[in-house]
Design a protein that fits this description.
The complex is a heterodimer of chains A (695) and B (270).
Chain A (H helix, E strand, L loop, with lengths): L8 H11 L11 H8 L3 H17 L1 H17 L2 H18 L1 H9 L1 H13 L1 E2 H15 L5 E4 L4 E2 L3 E4 L2 E2 L5 H20 L10 H8 L3 H23 L1 H9 L11 H7 L6 H11 L16 H27 L11 E4 L9 E4 L2 E3 L3 H14 L23 H4 L10 E7 L4 E13 L7 H8 L1 H14 L3 E7 L4 E2 L1 H12 L9 E6 L4 E8 L7 H20 L2 E9 L5 E7 L7 H8 L9 H13 L5 E8 L11 H17 L2 E7 L8 H5 L4 E3 L6 H13 L1
Parallel strand pairs in A: 2-4, 10-16, 14-15, 14-17, 17-18, 18-19
Antiparallel strand pairs in A: 1-5, 3-4, 6-7, 7-8, 9-10, 11-13, 12-13, 15-16
Helix pairs in contact in A: 1-2, 2-4, 3-4, 4-6, 5-6, 8-9, 10-11, 11-12, 11-14, 15-16, 19-21, 19-26, 21-26, 23-24
Chain B lengths: L7 E5 L12 H10 L4 E4 L6 H12 L2 E6 L6 H5 E6 L2 E6 L1 H8 L2 E5 L6 H6 L1 H4 L4 E4 L4 E4 L5 E6 L12 H4 L3 E4 L5 H12 L3 H16 L11 H12 L4 H13 L3 H14 L1
Parallel strand pairs in B: 2-9, 2-10, 3-6, 6-9
Antiparallel strand pairs in B: 1-3, 4-5, 7-8
Helix pairs in contact in B: 8-9, 8-10, 9-10, 9-12, 10-11, 11-12
Classes of the chains: A alpha/beta (695), B alpha/beta (270).
Chain lengths: 695, 270
């Protein structure tokens, strides 16, 4: 197409005259539009003509205006953007009529600028997960990433803006995000806010006449110090930081102070001294990546954490002492400082090195990060304070009075916006499916009689038995039949085959499989029937195979009423009661998948098997009444599946949702789901899927 | 599919393999060897277990037979089997029987990967009987004093199935290995690759970062072996960031987010 010659102005005018005939007159011709369009390449002309024809069918007047603006729009924007511009215009016409639509058409420049910004903008949502891993790996206390108006840290959280579109390209904006996050991390790691004096910056700034100026001056000076730390410790990052615009020129009088701050031995004390010395000097332009300082937030967070961690360490040490011989000396714990710079202190108990549990080790590292060392008063195994290290919220407070939680299970839920778990967020109960005595199972087996017979055959072939494989290249013993035949062949002048051994292979199918069946309201009708029929056929097949299996349905409404419906537990035989329960599977409420996965994985973990499978039968995305939908639901489900994977459970999803491709690869992984176009085919296919999956 | 034979190699180690002791493991191993007690090496992948065995073989001047175990490793893969030559059947020793006969060190790498029943074959060898019965030939091999059995195992795989049975593990003297300390690891990377102390230091720092991520998406942090790989690539002229990506990041994970994070880390360091 592009090889074609551009249409001439005359050709275009003829074509436009025909298309826009209704709105043209002697004094209102298409000459100008044709002349403008003649100047753009052929593919753009074709694109414009294509849309002019479409718009003309809606409104010729609008098409006429578009024809006049098309050339300008196409030179300013890419085709994709131009298309968005056209669609927006058409929407304006549909909603508000001709004149607003024409106005929208005229705003090419503004639209093009907005599109360009969108193209280069980077959102925290997309980079957040990577940044969080990045910061976590850099070492130090785990920092939570949160969206904020400005970029700052309170030493427990890092706040970053929701989008960055400051720089001309996407790559640069991405880099700005990274450097910004790293700079704020550096404040927590290189001792901008030492824990020995949480309110220091706040008090210092307030003691000076202009507190805001003092804070900004401190920040500018501290940034010099931190940049130098980067140059020493993370030179690659330092180079990236330098590409983000030139370092602001500092007044000549600053030079000795900057040299002092950039020395390897510089600490925040030097910054404070410089602050005193340079107070009153004009401020250099703040660097792009330095964010802001919030001394009040730091003071609060720091003081709070110090107190919590002190109590937590007391309690942890107390727990460690339990069961040990009592001693007269209170001070039995000593800490030896880590000299390698990793801030990983060694704990000594009665002079012997002690390996603390991982959570205590993290706690000690966090204390060292704040205080540089673990003070002696921290090392007493006593204290009656509450263990307030984690979220102090107790489960009973969450649903006090509204829910009788006895016998219920509590599960965490992943909140992707916070990038953290909501603790004990979901309350789950196991219920029995009400058995129904209908001849559903018999009918299904009759309906699929042919299939059932075929399944029996294929699955019998799979059954785990001690099989002797003959004519193998390697094996435990000699295959004498093959050998005799081989010698006969050898005598007759042919080559001796090398497949002369027998191998005893135990095809022990050591599989435990859990079927998680969607019982949400949306499965009503065909889907529910298909699910039940599938389960009947599966059970028949699995009984032949001898794989251990369990079937649970899941549904619920809100986080406080998640329900698992027992259809068959691992130990239950496939008997009349199970059949009646399969018959009794009924659509219930919503689809909160994460908690269901967590619960069933817990059950699977209790089973000893070489291979553990969790197969979900579903008809759509995770969805619940209280905001558990869209990305939240998908991310929580994905997290539950990651936890499953960590426990060595293979998760697989069979779905009939035709949109599944949009989200299932993200949740389950590209190869771990099957999408079935037609519900009615589910019973036919499911056994085949299972066979493929497990052989 | 050719699966049946464990890869075995016999060698008398003539040149001293480079090894930096992390603690008193050499003394422990030598004492165990003198007392004819088998040894269990525990530790994450790539922290120097195999190298340690080579080093000990060199020290003790015994041949070393290494078998990398896999989930299809059978008893006859270790002990031996009849093979057919033109017109005859010949008994061929497996690597374990060979090591017993020549009084060498037999090192079964990643023993938990092998089938559970094969570990039982080593039981009579691993206690004070020190015999290897060969069922098919009716022979009983008595291990000479020079023979030693060593197995390795990675306790980091948190799987119930990949765990050693108590009856097996309680026959061994266990040596624990971990990633070496910062300075030591730096020296090892430098020595193995010749990349220079400065770059080796950065690589070790990089490894510590990836080890921070263990449990938050990574199954294991970067091992010393991976660091040496990356360093060797750098010595051959590959840029540090590309070397880290190829030799470390891609080797550790397939997850795109994790890859991006690790890549950002290496870009920050170099």
């Amino acid at each position: 197409m592009t090889a074609l010659k551009p249409l001439t102005a005359a050709e275009l005018e003829d074509w436009l005259d025909e298309e826009l005939d209704a709105v043209l007159s002697l004094r209102r011709t298409s000459q100008a539009a044709a002349a403008a369009l003649a100047s753009v390449p052929r593919d753009q002309q074709d694109f414009a003509c294509h849309w002019i024809a479409i718009i003309a069918k809606t409104n010729p007047e609008l098409a006429f205006h578009f024809a006049n603006h098309a050339a300008e729009g196409l030179t300013r924007m890419t085709k994709d953007d131009a298309e968005a511009w056209i669609i927006q215009t058409m929407d304006a016409y549909d909603k508000m009529g001709l004149y607003p639509a024409i106005a929208a058409l005229n705003e090419i420049e503004a639209f093009a600028a907005a599109r360009a910004q969108r193209a280069r903008a980077v959102t925290l949502e997309e980079v957040g997960p990577v940044l969080e891993l990045f910061l976590h790996a850099l070492s130090g206390r785990r920092l939570k990433l949160e969206t904020g108006e400005t970029a700052f840290t309170d030493t427990a959280r890092i706040h970053l803006p929701a989008t960055i579109a400051l720089l001309p390209t996407r790559a640069e904006n991405l880099r700005l995000y990274k450097v910004l996050a790293a700079h704020l991390w550096a404040q927590t790691w290189f001792g901008t806010f030492p824990g020995t004096h949480p309110g220091r910056l706040l008090e210092r700034c307030q003691s000076l006449p202009d507190a805001t100026y003092a804070r900004e001056l401190f920040h500018a000076l501290e940034t010099f110090r931190l940049d130098a730390c980067f140059a020493r410790e993370l030179p690659g990052l330092y180079r990236e930081l330098c590409t983000l615009g030139d370092r602001p020129r500092a007044p000549a009088s600053w030079a000795p102070w900057i040299a002092r701050l950039e020395a390897a031995s510089a600490t925040v004390d030097d910054t404070y001294e410089a602050l005193t010395a340079l107070y009153g000097e004009p401020l250099p332009k703040p660097r792009l990546y330095q964010g802001v300082l919030d001394p009040a937030a730091v003071a609060t967070a720091l003081a709070e954490r110090l107190e919590q961690e002190r109590v937590a360490l007391h309690n942890a040490l107390k727990a460690m002492v339990q069961g040990k011989k009592p001693a007269l000396d209170e001070r039995r714990f000593v800490v030896r400082k880590d000299e390698t710079g990793r801030r990983d202190p060694t704990l000594l108990f009665d002079g012997q090195p002690l390996i603390p549990p991982p959570d205590v080790r993290t706690l000690m590292q966090s204390i060292v990060q704040d205080l540089g060392d673990i003070p002696d008063e921290y090392l007493v195994a006593a204290g009656d304070g509450p263990y307030a290290m984690e979220n102090p919220r107790k489960p009973e407070n969450v649903w006090k009075g509204t829910y009788h939680e006895e016998g219920a299970f509590h599960y965490n839920e992943w909140d992707y916006k916070r990038q953290h778990y909501r603790k004990e967020w979901c309350v789950l109960r196991e219920l029995d499916v009400h058995p129904v005595d209908e001849p559903f199972v018999a009918e299904t087996l009759r309906k699929y009689a042919g299939l059932a017979a075929r399944l029996r055959k294929t699955f019998e072939a799979l059954r785990g038995e001690n099989a002797t494989q003959r004519r193998q290249k390697h094996g435990d013993d000699i295959d004498f039949d093959a050998l005799v035949q081989g010698f006969a062949e050898l005598r007759s002048g042919r080559e001796l085959s090398d497949e002369l051994f027998v191998r005893n292979r135990r095809f022990a199918r050591n599989i435990a499989v859990m079927f998680m069946v969607d019982m949400s309201g949306s499965t009503k009708g065909w889907i529910n029937d298909a699910e039940r029929e599938s389960l009947v056929l599966l059970c028949e097949a699995l009984e032949i195979l001898g794989d251990r299996y369990a079937i649970y349905g899941f549904s619920g409404i809100t986080r406080k009423r998640c329900e698992m419906y027992r259809v068959k537990r691992f130990d239950d035989p496939y008997d009349h009661a199970v059949r009646a329960r399969i018959t009794g599977i009924k659509p219930q409420d919503y689809t909160r998948m994460g908690v269901a996965i967590r619960h069933l994985c817990g059950l699977l973990n209790g089973v000893e098997a070489r291979t553990k499978l969790l197969i979900t039968l579903s008809d759509g995305k995770p969805d619940d009444y209280d905001g558990y939908r869209g990305e939240y639901g998908i991310e929580d489900t994905r997290h539950a599946l990651l936890e499953a994977k960590r426990d060595g459970i293979h998760a697989f999803c069979i779905t009939i949702d035709t949109d599944a491709r949009d989200y299932l690869p993200h949740m389950y992984g590209a190869a771990n789901y099957v999408q079935i176009d037609d519900v009615r085919k589910l019973p036919l296919k499911i056994s085949d899927i299972y066979r493929h999956l497990t052989s | 599919m050719e699966k049946g034979v464990g890869k075995a190699e016999t060698l008398l180690v003539t040149k001293e393999p480079y090894y930096e002791p992390q603690g008193d493991e050499i003394l422990l191993f030598e004492s165990a060897y003198r007392n004819q007690i088998p040894v269990l090496l525990k530790g994450p992948t790539g922290c120097g277990k195999t190298r340690f065995m080579e080093h000990m073989a060199w020290r003790l001047k015994r041949p070393l037979v290494t078998v990398s175990c896999h989930d299809d490793l059978t008893a006859s893969d270790l002990v031996g089997r009849y093979l057919i030559t033109a017109g005859d059947t010949v008994w061929v020793d497996g690597p374990l029987a060979r090591a017993v006969r020549m009084g060498g060190l037999c090192y079964l790498d990643e023993i938990v990967e092998a089938r559970k029943d094969t570990t039982v074959v080593i039981h009579p060898l691993a206690d004070d009987r020190r015999v290897l019965p060969i069922e098919k030939t009716g022979e009983v091999l008595y291990a000479p004093a020079e023979f030693a059995l060593a197995i390795s195992y990675n306790p980091g795989y948190q799987s119930v199935l990949k765990d050693l049975k108590q009856s097996t593990r309680q026959r061994f003297v266990a040596l624990e290995f971990d990633y070496p300390s910062t300075d030591l690891e730096r020296r090892i990377v430098d020595h193995e690759s010749g990349v220079g102390d400065d770059v080796a230091g950065k690589l070790v720092k990089f490894a510590a970062m990836t080890r921070n991520l263990k449990g938050s998406g990574l199954e294991e942090g970067a091992s010393t072996r991976l660091l040496v790989h990356a360093a060797k690539l750098m010595v051959s002229g590959v840029s540090p960031v590309a070397a880290c990506r190829g030799a470390i990041a891609q080797a550790l994970t397939d997850d795109p987010e994790m890859l991006a994070a690790i890549h950002e880390l290496s870009a920050s360091l170099f």
